[in-house]
Structures are given as C-alpha cells and as structure tokens.
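Training component of the fellowship. As part of building independent skills, the fellow (R.M.) carried out the full modelling exercise for a liganded target. The chosen ligand was zinc ion. The inputs are recorded below so that the supervisory panel can assess the work.
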Amino acid sequence: MVMIERQKIKVIYVMGAGHSGSTLLDIILGNHPEIQSCGELKYNNFLNKYQENCLCTCGQKSQTCQFCNQVIDTWKYRTGIKNIKSYQRLQKKYEDTKIPFNLNWSKSEDFNQYLFYTLEFLKSLSSSSGKNIIVDSSKNPTRAFYLSLIPEIELILIHLIRDGRGVSYSIMKKNPDEKKRIKRLVFNKSTK
Ligand SMILES: [Zn+2]
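Fellow's submitted model of the complex:
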C-alpha cells in the first residue's frame, strides 16, 4: 500500500521590528504565482479590517471583496464558528502577550481551539487562493511560536533586519511624538 502524506501548508512568516519593510517583502513574495500574500494575520489585523469593512489591497471594501468573503465563508464552514469575535478573543488572549508559553496551555481547551481556528483560517486562505504557500507578515514572535506547534504547517521564518536608523526615521516620520521614545531607546537616557 502506498502511503500518501497529506500536503502540509507552507507559511512564510516574516519576523522583525515594525517599519522594517515587511509589507514590501510581503507584496514582492505575493507576486510569485504559487504564493498568496496576506499581510498581517495576527490579532487585530486581517479580521478586524474585515469587520470594519476597511479597504482590501484589491481596492474594494473588504466585505464586498470576493476573495475576503470566500475566505471567511470557507473558514466558518470548516470550523462551524458563528462569531468572528470569539476567535479574536482567543487571539488576544494568546497572541497579544509577552508572557512566555505556558506548558499547561497545551492541555487547555481554549488553546487547542485557538490552534484549530488558526490552522483552518490559513487553510481557507490557501484553498480560496488556490495557492499552497501563505505569507504572514505579522512579525509577532509569540504567534510564530504557536504556528510552529501545528504539525500540519511547514513554517518558514524570515527575519527581516533593516538598518536601525531607517527604522527610527520611518517611525518618526509617521509619528513625530515618537522621537523622544526613540532617543531614549538609542541613547538609553532620559530626554526630559
Ligand atoms: Zn480584495
């Protein structure tokens, strides 16, 4: 008997500081015919933008974008989830934290539910796009760690490093109030 191994879903996960050019890298990778670029899939991003009906990268409002709707519908069908917010609560609980992974979580129903919804969401992105490689430029190391726990995922990490001066300039350009915080980080002293 020939054993056929079910194909794993490949996730290219972009790590690094914010303002390092992850969006640009995401778009460049997404130009490959076998890769689906998804932006940041971590807590408070893709699903939030969908619920707030923000603009999709295709130029349409998320809730009228055929691709976004197909992903959400497929995901709901596969998981039976009724309310997107219930998954977002789990994302917040596990991703929006700097607390190191607690081994007891692996036994918790909530945590296993979180992993299940996360995997099915990635699979829905894959089936809706017809591509087996997904780019997630979340950068959040906690989320990357959780993805590494899912056997059906082949995780490929890219640690993006941009010159710190470029990162600082980009942050300050967007928000001049950040200048003091950056000075404090770089020179490690008070700017009062
Ligand atoms: Zn779209």
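The panel noted the following from the submitted structure. The pocket of zinc ion is lined by residues 56, 58, 60, 65, 67-68 (CB under 6 Å). The longest strand covers residues 9-15.
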